[in-house]
Specification:
The structure holds 2 protein chains of 2 kinds.
Chain A (H helix, E strand, L loop, with lengths): L3 E4 L2 E4 L5 E7 L4 E9 L6 E7 L5 E2 L8 E7 L2 E6 L8 E9 L7 E2 L3 E5 L1
Parallel strand pairs in A: 2-11
Antiparallel strand pairs in A: 1-3, 3-8, 4-5, 4-9, 5-6, 7-8, 9-10, 9-11
Chain B lengths: L3 E3 L3 E5 L4 E7 L6 E7 L6 E7 L4 E4 L2 E6 L4 E6 L8 E8 L9 E3 L3 E6 L1
Parallel strand pairs in B: 2-11
Antiparallel strand pairs in B: 1-3, 3-8, 4-5, 4-9, 6-7, 7-8, 9-10, 9-11
Classes of the chains: A mainly beta, B mainly beta.
């Protein structure tokens, strides 16, 4: 149980375009979802926290107009990177916590974004 | 804010030996601490959670200790196998009273187990 999926797993886009990444909890209802970014050999950096039906809470230094988060249901959150630039190239990972074990995050497999 | 240090970037050991990874933190003692495994190009996988009132937790070949006096957690893999080769991440719960489930992550220790 506690499976989280992400789609797509890899995406390559041109500079200036927007990219949407989906995060789904497959077998549980996610009260909260988190979005992280990870650069090579670096730690996971929390970008934002989202709760179903409410606005996401962004970490300091993360542009909310650039990284749009929508948490439309208890099983789906989306991250849209708007007007992507090469410096946005990174590994984006989502995680979710459920009602039963709120202290354990279950991670998706990640999305590798490359902006040309 | 919390600063988390994992002992080394890389650890190489021989198959069958015990791998010991260290996680030190500098600020408040978290309500709980977790260890995750991450393979290249994949998301982290939850391994163990230990609470502030627990000294030790075990799961099969894995053992975690938590010393709030030393502000340190040790993660042990006994009878290590090449399949244990991965990056292991230490994660600390955020301050009490803030967003439930929010974690701070260390940079990880890359473990290589050679035959």
């Amino acid at each position: 149980g506690a499976v989280v999926s992400q789609h797509p797993s890899r995406v390559i886009c041109k500079s200036g375009t927007s990219v949407k990444i989906e995060c789904r909890s497959l077998d549980f209802q996610a009260t909260t979802m988190f979005w992280y970014r990870q650069f090579p050999k670096q730690s996971l950096m929390l970008m934002a926290t989202s709760n179903e039906g409410s606005k996401a809470t962004y970490e300091q230094g993360v542009e909310k107009d650039k990284f749009l988060i929508n948490h439309a249901s208890l099983t789906l959150s989306t991250l849209t990177v708007t007007s992507a630039h090469p410096e946005d190239s990174s590994f984006y990972i989502c995680s979710a916590i459920g009602l039963v074990r709120a202290d354990t995050q279950y991670f998706g497999p990640g999305t590798r974004l490359t902006v040309l | 804010s919390q600063k988390i240090e994992q002992n080394s970037e890389a650890l190489n050991i021989q198959e069958g030996k015990t791998a010991t990874l260290t996680c030190n933190y500098t600020n408040y003692s978290p309500a709980y601490l977790q260890w995750y495994r991450q393979d290249p190009g994949r998301g982290p996988v939850f391994l163990l959670l230990i609470r502030e009132n627990e000294k030790e937790k075990r799961k099969e070949r894995l053992k975690v200790t938590f010393d709030t006096t030393l502000k340190q957690s040790l993660f042990h893999i006994t009878a290590s196998q090449p399949a244990d080769s991965a990056t292991y991440l230490c994660a600390l719960a955020h301050d009490r009273g803030s967003t439930l489930g929010r974690l701070y992550f260390g940079r990880g220790t890359q473990l290589t187990v050679w035959p």
